Amino acid sequence: MKTTLTYLFILAGAGLTVLCGKEEQPEVSVETPSHFAALDDVRLLATGLLELGQSLRDFVHKTKGQINDIFQKLNIFGRSFDQLSVLAREIKEEEEELKKTAVMLQANNEEIRGISVNIGSKVESIMLEKSSLRSKVEGLEEKLRSMSQSLLTGDQVRDINGLKGVINNQEQSITELLKAVREQSDQLNYQRVKIKSLEEKLTASTLAQDTSGRMPESFSSDTPTLSPYLASDSSKKTADMDLPSDCSEVFNRGEKISRVYAIRPNGSEPFKVFCDMTADHGATVIQRRRDGSVNFDQSWEKYENGFGDFHGEFWLGLSKIHSLVAQGNSVLHIHLEDWKHNKRFIEYTCDLDGPESNYTLHLKLLSGDLSDPMKNHTGMMFSTKDRDNNKHRHSNCAHNYTGGWWFNSCGDTNLNGRYFRMRHKGRSDRRRGIHLKPGRKASYSLRFTQISVFPFNTSSQSSETGGFLANNHL
Predict the structure, then answer these.
(1) What are the sequence ranges of the domains in the chain?
(2) pTM for the complete prediction?
(3) E strand residue ranges, 129-279
(4) pLDDT band at 25 (very low <50, low <70, confident <90, very high)
(5) Fold designation for 247-455
(6) Strands 361-368 and 343-352, bridge-based pairing
């Protein structure tokens, strides 16, 4: 701009010089050009400079407006960043509180578990005392019948009847005590479920901050074993003789509550099982999957002896399942639920060979509302990651897809696979988890499974629709 003004002054000076020197010029008759042409150029140049100045002024105003907008946006960003910082601090504080709560709940869970174990032992002791007392009463009654005809007087008979009344009252008191203990045990189990739910929420909150929600590739192999059957030495023989053979017999003895009982099938050693009494008969549960709390990628020894928690997820054990099925006329009932909460069931007549045949499974379809998902598994030996018995020559299905099962090929049904906490859409992901493959259709990912056995002559879920839907397919 300074250069333009300098040029303007030079032109103005040149014009004045021309005007001042006009008198010194001699008059000539030849026509000369107008001296005002330079002034027109000056005016034109001045007009251009004015327009340029106006444009510069407009540009400066526009630039100031843009700078003000930028400063406003920076202020808004600064306030948003401060709010996010405060929110992050609050989230961190809440996470610390959740961790403290989880520690407290863990301590309470351990205490409740100890109380539950003590209650279980007391219930067993009371049951044994009840059985022993009943045997003694029956013996006394028999002796009294033989003696009352010849030896006892009327007063003695009345005294004996009074004694029988006292014994009956004591037995009723024991029954009421058992009922109260069971109610307390159910309450403790409910508290344990609530604690587990809070622990899952805490775990989900931690995973949401660290990852996109994917499950870890492997779990700890330290899986709890099922609680064993225990009895005192003095009463063990009597208790073993009086134990039912399965949950169906437990139901027939008048026990209608779904919980853990001790059984002794087929002359085997006694052991504990979970009895499902919800279908108007007793069914012995041999497997349950519902929340991924137990790692089912276990060794042959674990699958043979059993692992997990009767009140959560568990596998009863191949040796125990064999002793149950060996009693004959067994029905294998499979209850399934997918991620849309559609419920299905299927039943087979079942036979299971012993350890010398690697627990070969034999099935024959009875009923259900699914295409036969176990068709390719009948006649198969059981396989685990450390003992491969499947017919796939070039692949260990239990190792590649996790979980012990009666594998034929790796793409078939596996209800002991990895538990995913979300529904996977990919075929390879589904096949690595708990899945069902009915016929030639694609595999279905499952969120809940329960496998149980009961005698063939017991009315089953298939004859009573119960809680299962009849028309929707998985």
Answers:
(1) 42-151, 152-204, 247-455
(2) 0.53
(3) 259-263, 271-276
(4) very low
(5) Gamma Fibrinogen; Chain A, domain 1 (3.90.215)
(6) antiparallel
